[in-house]
Amino acid sequence: MSSENNMPKEEGLDHSLKLLKEGYQFIINRRHTMQSNVFETKLLGDKAICLSGSEAAKIFYDNDKFKREGAAPKPVEKTLFGEGGVQGLDGLAHKHRKAMFMSLMSKDDLAEIRRLTKKYWEQAAQDWESREEIVLYQEVKKIITRVACEWTGVPLEEDEVDHRADQLSEMFEKPAEVGLSHFKGWRARSKAEDWIEELVKEVRNHDREVDRYRALYAFSWHKDHEDQLLDESVVAVEILNLLRPMVAISIYIAFTALAVHQYPEKVKALESGDEDQLQYFIQEVRRYYPFFPFTVAIVKENFTWDGYKFEEGTMTLLDLYGTNHHPDDWENPNRFEPERFKEWDGSPFDFIPQGGGEFDIGHRCAGEWITIDIMKESLDYLVNHLTYSMPEQDLSFSMTEIPTIPESRIIMRDIKRKQ
Ligand code: HEM
Ligand code: MYR
Fold first, then answer.
1. Are 322 and 399 in contact (CB under 8 A)?
2. Ligand 1 close to Cβ of residue 363 (< 6 A)
């Protein structure tokens, strides 16, 4: 437990396999045994620092202390993120690229997201009425694929919906696996990049008309901080940085349906469709259930914090799930209590399911507002526009699979739209 700078340390050659085995609990387990929000371990053959809680999160999002270039593990880059995207940029290049994303997040853009979400839920629900049962997670992936393509200006034929929904979800369903699952993710990414690159070429050759305010148009003609158009491959990576995570919101919607089922006493408040109540409920879904476990950066230059030395080049993990459940930051963190968000002060460091800090100069998720809006609209639809039953099924979720999804994927029967 001792080292030169006295940072608590897990001895041993490498603990990557334990990370895979312990999943969302890996950092929490060691935080408990070492009684520290900061500790050192070994991952991917290298020294790694793990951080938890809002105080540590403040340090992690200090751009003078941490950088992102080269931080994402290769298998994650090859499937989830793609190469050359905003996640791995720093400084001016990052600020400029991030502005390209944030320019899509105006009030009107978000209002359109909600309108499209409602429209495609309604369309899908009409079809579900004639089916014996549906698997909600699989259905919502298709709903959001439609929303995401229409919103970004990416054309989507009716007979393409299933295929594109599968392709986009294969990129996030098993991002850190090896072997066949990794191959599936890698292949899905490579085919999806080809699909989008072709569209970018057409836009640039004026062979395809796209509304100027759509992401496909804006990204195709975006000029970087050196006044250069992006490589077509990078435009494709960034368009997929919209489509893929939008489809991933299906995981949160599966957890939302689970919470509606498991906490009926918390659902009453939603029945009036009150915006604030919808907001508290989905915020608690994002806090309570595991999704993105941790994020990764690299120490930019040597510094000391809280008496601990951080050495340039050290890989550093910020525990997102653990911070959302940290007892220093949350009262009764392991209870599902949407009301807590009525009192929450909006700190950018204690509630970080999609990263913390600032949007514009930091790496906080560009799609957090979209996520919130799609979740609110979906929750409202589930509670106030549908009736359904839930047959017996396995509603448990693993704490070791990343990302985790309720085992049954939420089976629903006897679906009727409310009149
Ligand atoms: C970054 C989670 C949805 C686009 C991130 C980060 C996390 C995250 C943890 C990294 C934060 C960091 O490293 O500090 C999630 C989760 C989502 C979600 C759990 C739920 C499905 C979305 C959506 C979009 C999106 C809907 C786009 C419409 C991005 C982008 C980044 C990002 C572009 C990179 C930001 C940067 O590097 O500056 N997200 N996200 N995400 N997310 Fe999301
Ligand atoms: C997205 O598609 O970007 C959002 C949802 C993806 C969830 C997958 C979680 C896996 C995270 C692996 C660890 C990443 C370390 C940088």
1. no
2. yes
